[in-house]
Amino acid sequence: MKVLVCLNIPDIGIDQMKEAGLEVVKWAKDLPMTQNTLNAEAKKYDALLTTSNYIIDSDFLRDNQHLQIISQYAVGYDNIDVEAAIHYGIPIANAPNAMTDATADIAFGLLLVVSRKMFFMHKTIAKREWQHFRPQAHLGIELKNRTLGIFGLGTIGLEFAKRCQGAYQMKVFYCNRTRNQQAENELNAKKVSFDELLLESDVISVHCALTDETKNMFNRRAFERMKTSAIFLNTARGAVHNEADLIQALKNMEIWGAGLDVTDPEPMDPLNPLLDMENVAVTPHIGSATVTARNRMSVYAAENIIALHKGEKIPYQVT
Length: 319
Fold this sequence. Notes:
With about 325 residues, the protein is an alpha/beta fold. The protein has twelve helices and twelve strands.
């Protein structure tokens, strides 16, 4: 089996595939290959280990029906046309839970940074605006005993909630399709409707998958229903929030602040007004950017392909 690894990922998973007898070629350049290059290269291989940089749409899948598996170096796979993959009989797999702690840490970090305006205040030093003590300037908010609302309480959301409750004794509300019994048992979390989540939460953190249902879920109507003192966090997918509506909500002081590790589009326009707002912190989609998480993602994505090669059950198959 010949495997094309579409981006310069850590070698740990690649070495495992080679040890299993697979022929592996890695795209070692820093920049992703173009979509046209991927389309052409994929025809030479039996399997792809891909990333969310690439659009795996119905046209690509139709032209590459020979592929035996596509394994995603990520937990999300909204860049892949799952229905088309099912139609052409191509298994899709991912790397779930590899970045749980890393992403929960980023969400927690963004919460702290936004609550105390740290990114904005850091910039004042470089601009020589830090001159003297100003008792009522650029004040932040304290987080102890606040209400945390989680939209999409899975493994990452649970770890984030544990951090918030452990550090600040936060009450935890969550909005899910299904009940999270673990969160209710461990954190006394309460399952609520989306409207109640908006109305009651001091902090709302997004940890859901991007689907047709969740796309633009946090829009003008949602922000208008949130507390004016609320902080909005998104470390899941940028399209879950409507960025124009978020900008407007912040400008109109309908919410207090926002922390984003994901934007729409990505990369973000460097002139985006969010980057200059006092109560906003943006990071460039680095939720999984730790050595441990990125290595684990490499291993999990590789294990999917190795299992197929051995005729075993694909451990992280999503379709």
